[in-house]
Amino acid sequence: GDNAYSPPRTADPADAAPPSGGSGSSYQKRGNVAAKAFRGLFWMVSTGVGSRVVSLISTLLLTRYVLPDDYGEVQNTFIVVWMVDLLSQFSMPQYVATRADITPKHIHHATIVFHLAGVLGMGLCLLLAGSIGPSLGAPHMAAYMPGFVLATVFQRLATMPDRILVRELRF
Q1: Residue 88, Cβ neighbours under 10 Å: how many?
Q2: Of 76, 102, 128, 137, which residue has the fewest beta carbons closer than 10 angstroms?
């Protein structure tokens, strides 16, 4: 009768297959996004491991060739440049990477603000290193500042293009 038990219907293999015909189906787009996300994850992990290896080697070289007193000054200089870099970003890279609704004009303006603030911040680091160094226990900070500023400028030049690629899932 009508109350008879019937086993649940198993999925028809034809239902699970991707739709045929027509390019750009929803199924194919999901696969494309997943592949891009996987490539992005691969590159992020690879570059993360690579940067840690470079950091380890540079730390070992610093501890080998830099005197302990100088090492403290180098670290103080790094902290000052890092903080100025962080504060002068105004979260522009995160804004570009996470906001899908912004236009290329917004990205352009965010990039200009990001770079102008960076130039201003790094310029202040160079100008004030001689006067703030002694108060931070690093009387020779001005000697180390140009190298850190140069490295930070190179890093900042790559930041916004990287965030645009992340935004568009282009790895």
Answers
A1: 22
A2: 137
Q: For residue range 136-154, list pLDDT tens digits in order.
A: 999 999 999 999 999 999 9
Give pLDDT tens digits for 74-117: 999 999 999 999 999 999 999 999 998 999 999 999 999 999 99
Distance CA 128, CA 120 (A): 12
- Record the tokens describing residue 77, joined without a space: 């200089």
Task: Give yes or no for a contact between 101 and 112, defined as CB atoms under 8 angstroms apart.
Answer: no
Per DSSP, 78 falls in state H
**Dist CA 59 CA 78 (whole Å):** 13
**From the CB of residue 140, how many other CB atoms can be counted at a distance below 10 Å?**
17
Alpha helices of 88-169 — where are they, by DSSP H?
92-98, 104-132, 141-167
Secondary element (H or E) of residue 26 = helix 26-65
